[in-house]
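Reopening this ticket.

The earlier resolution said the output was attached, but the attachment link was broken on my side. Pasting everything inline this time so it's all in one place.
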Amino acid sequence: MRKLVALPVLSADALSSVAYGPEALLAVLVLAGAPGLRYSVPVALAIVFLMLAVGVSYRQTIRAYPQGGGSYIVATDNLGRVPGLVAAAGLMTDYILTVAVSISSGTAAVTSALPGLAGDAVPIGVLVIALLLAGNLRGVRQAGALFAAPTYAFVIAIAALIGFGLYHAAGRGFSAVPAPPHHAVEGVGLLLVMRAFASGSTAMTGIEAISNAVPAFKPVAWRNARTTLSWMIGLLVALFAGTVAMVHLEGVVPEPGETVLSQLAHRSFGSGGMYVFTQAATALVLLLAANTAYNDFPRVLFLLARDHHAPRVFLRLGDRLAFSNGVILLSVAAAVVYVAFDGRTDSLIPLYAVGVFLAFTLSQSGMVVHWWRSRSRHWRKSLCFNATGALLSAVVFVTAGITKFTEGAWLALVTVALFLLVTTRIRRHYEAVAEALRLHPQAIEVPSRTITPRSGSSLPAGQNRPPGGAEPPDRAEPPSGAAREGREQEHREQEDRESEDSPESISHLSVVLIDALHQASMRALAYAASLQQPVLALHVSPGDEDAERFREAWLLWGDHLPLRIVISPYRATVTPLVGYIESLHHQRPDLTITVILPEIVVRHWRHRLLHSPLGGRLRRALRPLPKIVVTTVPFHI
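Inline output:
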């Protein structure tokens, strides 16, 4: 991507947080009334410093991981498996809440402009999530001017809002308008200020998006990514600080029926077209921010499944080259969270901060270890930057976990713990299965010679007449004309049916599908060979390197049987298998093809979810083809 396209596409999540970050900060301070609101500017300045520190830290991540360095990858590489899983838990919580919070905040922007829809906020939000689900299952991609426009429109709208507001404030000598009186329910103290700091820090969500997408940039990719990240941080700081300054100067406080941005837009633009533009741009950029999670969440699940921490179904791409299972899981989880919290942004924010800064902390801590180990050029400076980012992120994480524990942060912490438990048990199961399937010399007997067709078995159906087959009736007085032709056609059809039904004349080919060389696949090969018919082994590989590795293993374990490898770069399995078998069927329509699959049979029902039911999917896909048989050879764990 060019930088002008990458900036709005990858910055949508971070920049759109200006719509709810300042409001989340004020929603805490207003609990202390006017004395609490006086801390809005100092707290905002502390958050701006945090943005700069974390932004500079991620510049070091981009330099160290030019192939893309998300929190899961960085933490796993440098801190170990468990910290990597904790970082993944924080990321996935972040992505789920990105959808829920962005949709709730976008719905609030719409209902602020159209108050009559306020009672339908939850159904509207669920409908939007359903539309995002449908669009991403169809293969919607974030690219081009179509997806860049909402972010640029939002930046223009907020910049205009800040500019008009400052112009009006200059007319009165930048004196602040007194805020409406609010009854204080809490006193001003360190705990209140720290809660406000943690809530306002949610304006930093999405900062790591550019470090994840470094390979998507034009060369030199890492240099362009760092430049784009710097522009994003600059815009985020300007919009966030400007919005808080306008809130302070205009005396705006959070109101139940209208967002802070809507109030500021009303004061700067009135209720005309510019106000409508601001609200529409806010809703659209929040919708785009929600959609960014649909790219990142399934990819993290893919990485987890690749490392055997998640079910293997998340490795599979759908027909539209999207990780369909991950998209569905994200939509369901986001919808449940959204409905459970009644679509209220202020209720979702406490959960949001925990996941975001947990991932930030582990990612930056991993970078500290990376620089300490590598000792590459300028490593001391990079280590200091990342250590500062890690420390500040840890402060926010601990603050959010403590101060917002009873407000919902406990749920995020419990979710992380459950995620860690489930993923470690999934890996333990896969390791146990791998041990049970591991090949040992002479563990499974396979034929030591190539199986060739027996005499006559390769002839087309209908040429091998069965013994005692039906003879044509009444040959003494053969019919003539149309009657003769009809009788001959009937005889030919009868011969074809008889030859197909006769075991002696059916031409067989056994195709054994092998995902890997293990005891289950060897048992399937042994079963196929026992039928004394030609056998073909078929393997689907995601790339040439994987295919070469499989071929080398095949030379050791199964070279006495013919092998065909189908390359499927998008990790699809059923479609290339069906395509290959269809081609075999069209080349030799006389063959009866028996497709043999090794099937792993597990003891507990919950473990069945971890193994793909390939047999059923293949049966449904091959059912329209005649003379195709699909069978499975079970291997019990």
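Reporter confirms the inline version is readable. The first helix runs from residue 3 to 16. The chain is about 65% helix and 5% strand.
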